[in-house]
Amino acid sequence: MVPPSDVAAVWPAAGIGAGILLAFGRSALVPLAIGVMVGTVVATVLSDRSLATAVFKGFCYVTEPVIVAWLLARWFGPAFSFQDLRRVSGFLAAAVMAAAITGIGGAATITLLHTTAPFWDAWRAWSLADGVGILVVAPLGNTELNGPAVVLRAEAGQVVAMVVHELATNAAKHGSLSTPNGRVSVRWRRRSNGDPHAPLVLEWRETAGPSVVAPQKTGYGTSIIRDVIPYEFGGTVDLTFTPLGVQCRLELSATWL
Q1: Parallel, antiparallel or unpaired: strands 245-252 and 236-242
Q2: pTM for the complete prediction?
Q3: How far is CA 45 from the centre of its chain?
Q4: Which of 168, 33, 191 shows the shortest CA–CA distance to 91?
């Protein structure tokens, strides 16, 4: 796949929009739409893109959280929470559908107005970036995200997204995100400042949630978290279940950045 330069590896704004609509309902739709459209137009034009590109991308960004919120309201009613596996699975399905649908418009905009990348490459990149943004950010109302801008190669981005999704799903079902006062801190950095070959370090830390006990048996999700990055990319993953919350530290070689 040729990753288009106009598509980020992960687009957290998609998750922010979905999270706002889930938290505040339809009353937030108009302010959200205006804010997203204005922000997209300004940022896109300042990045030397055309006004047409900005407007079409803004429309896609507005539509995405609306699709997620509409599907969840239709399936589960107006009040949505991550309280059981059925709702978590429904959220996963809604995020995938929203990213795939808006990815068509986004890819068309990118390929027609900006880049020469093939349409389906642009669609896969857009859908992955926005889908991961929704899955990771929308459930994390009590979350701190902190780190520099980092672009991962497509194959590494998919695997890191799988790992973070498993951590977020577990936190929503059993950990800090299953309680109103729980907190999750997600921080990433290059281990040595200024070194172009420095690995990427990502740290996930849960606090103020239910007391955590290490599982007696390793399940599918835990295997994904612990094994995929070392096996596929030679990185390291340290997953620990402390009484205060789950902690995970992963390290990825600069080869995959």
Answers
A1: antiparallel
A2: 0.55
A3: 25
A4: 168
At what angle are helices 154-173 and 119-137 packed, to 10 degrees?
30
Helix (H, G, I), strand (E, B) or coil at 238: strand
In this structure, what token pair is assigned to residue 168? 């977020």
Distance CA 65, CA 179 (A): 23
Cβ burial, residue 146 (10 Å; 0-12/13-18/19+):
exposed
Q: Which of left, alpha, beta for 234 (phi over 0: left; psi -120 to 50: alpha)?
A: left
Reading the chain (257 residues) residue by residue, the pLDDT tens digits are 444 444 455 555 667 677 767 765 776 778 778 877 877 777 777 765 678 888 888 888 888 888 988 898 888 887 676 667 788 788 889 888 998 998 898 888 878 877 677 888 888 888 887 787 777 667 655 667 677 767 777 777 777 877 877 787 777 777 887 776 778 888 888 766 666 678 888 899 988 888 888 877 777 778 888 888 888 888 888 998 888 889 999 988 877 77
Q: What is the largest CA-CA distance in the chain?
A: 56
Contacts of 106 (CB under 8 A, 6+ apart): 7, 57, 60, 122, 123, 126, 130
Return all residues near 226 (Cβ < 8 A) that are at least 6 apart: 218, 237, 239
Q: Are 56 and 105 in contact (CB under 8 A)?
A: yes
Distances in whole angstroms, Cα of residue 26 to Cα of each of 66, 68, 72, 114: 9, 12, 13, 33
